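INFO  loader      accepted 1 record
INFO  loader      residues=707
INFO  predictor   begin
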Amino acid sequence: MKSRTATPAAGLLLLVALVAVAEADTDAGDVAALGNLYSSWNSPAQLTGWSASGGDPCGAAWTGVSCSGSAVTSIKLSGMELNGTLGYQLSSLQALKTMDLSNNYLHDAIPYQLPSNLTYLNLAKNNFSGNLPYSISNLVSLEYLNLSHNSLFQEIGELFGSLNSLSELDVSFNNLTGNLPFSVGSLSKLSSLYMQNNQLSGTVDVLSNISLSTLNIANNNFSGMIPQGFSSIANLIVGGNSFVNMPASPPPTLKPHDQPNDPQGPISAPTIPETPIDQDDKKMQTGPLIGIAVGSIAAASCVLFVLVFCLHNARKRNDDASSEPKDIVGSLAVNIETASNREVLNNNHENAVVATSDLQPAGKMTPDRVHGTNGSTAKKPKVPVTVKSYTVAALQVATNSFCQDTLLGEGSLGRVYKADFPNGKVLAVKKIDSASLSLYEEDNFLEVVSNISRLRHPNIVPLTGYCVEHGQRLLVYEYIGNGTLHDILHFSDGMSKKLTWNTRIRIALGTARALEYLHEVCLPPVVHRIFKSSNILLDEEYSPHLSDCGLAALSPNPEREVSAEVVGSFGYSAPEFAMSGIYTAKSDVYSFGVVMLELLTGRKPLDSSRERSEQSLVRWATPQLHDIDLLAKMADPALDGLYPAKSLSRFADIIAICVQSEPEFRPPMSEVVQQLVRLMQRASIIRRHSDDLGYSYRVPDREADVL
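INFO  predictor   done
INFO  writer      dumping tokens
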């Protein structure tokens, strides 16, 4: 009897177990992402259950991993002595809500792509470097973000405009620099903000309208006034800055007869017995009071008259002088400007998250006017100029009067010079040809400078300063010392051999990320318009830095129609620009495809020295991109065949979709980035025992086929 009853029970248990296993079968994308993490951490033994290849994190209960059904929803590995990076595949964890990797030894940059549905992210107390990744701006469900006690640097970008659920933000104990981004002011649910022990500067007015309960901004370089709104913050720490009103003084005590109308009634005061005063005494007191009042009015009138007279004479002297106008109103003008700006800021607070908005932070002064090339006056910029202003004299000294020996290159807007400053700093100065600027563009030069200065991305050359003096228009950039991609590919003997296959993929990926940032992160989007290999600068590690971003706004009539002959001579322009003069983000994608072709073939976009059928790179290469045998013949001879055939083929597939003649069929740059990331990952798998992805290798046929 027992055997007959036990058999159905055993079968039922087996069925339940099978169902449980089936339900615990983890999503393949999540398994791959965790495996990539495990490899990036050098397969630590303390993570029981984890595997670099396959497995079932949800069913096998991997250490620190929680799931809902077949999806990984939580990773909690704080204080596990993990050492390594965060890999490339975090964005595959689509259901991940919580990630706590704090108090470990993780290093390098925080990944460019983060899980998009995170609500809790804690990476505190690690060794992360670089800047805050702008993919944070896409984490619209994020409620808690802690990146404290790392080595993050550079400015904080406009990352917070969409983070409407964020309640606690901690970036303390890093090396962050620059001003607070406008988008911080849009964090309506933020209650706790920790930014202490950084190198942040500027004013803190952007925080004045947030209902914070805790704010710690101690030990930075903030200046200006402590906003009055800070008085309502329960836990406020602002020491170690340069505020002019620090510590904040308590509100003045009002006398009983000065109390404003209050529904609770006036504050009671001790009753003072009234001494009777006869009529003559009252008259005696009234006389002096009237005299004092009349005398005060007369004195004030005299002071006002003198002030108006001085202002009139000073203005007249300024009008007669040929130099730039001076600030003759002094603190009075500053107070008026500050009050006006604060009013504008408060009235437009909701729009402050847009990087190119018309707002100017309270207390941020910009000149009322600047002189144009022919003595014309330019309008005050609509957005603040936050980068350094240089004099022509200082730039002349640094460039040896812009001599030929310091010339780095020449573009459509002017020449670029190397500038060596007395303090040892080396920068690059673009001297814009005044003939290429219309009067309208002169008037808006400072606005363009302000917009360019806000572009913050590790693969974009940052603007560090400008000069608008004596009719000159100059831009000062960070100096990238290893030349342009164009020169290394086409003009440097032997240098192109240093561009190994993996290095070329890395250059394409970094440049694609820069374009993705311009097209899909910046608000409003920025179209490059002059994308080409000579605008891709390489540093000592051959990492790419895109230059001339935002400069198309200075080009005269960027939407003008041009002939097919002119466009053809350029070599990078999309067909729709040749036909109609219309240039969009998809036109940038086409130009990016041309640069990828340069990386693949080592050829110029147009080369009149070749036979006629091969002069146009796109026209010659496009029919061969899907033929593996022809593709191998197209590859740059400098590669010496040291590349996986499958990797070359996938690289060509990306090129093919970018250079399609119809713009609507070209992918957005975010899709291009994802494809290049996958290509980089496959290269990493082959070279998993090498830390240097730039090392070239020849892959056996059998291994290449697997790729």
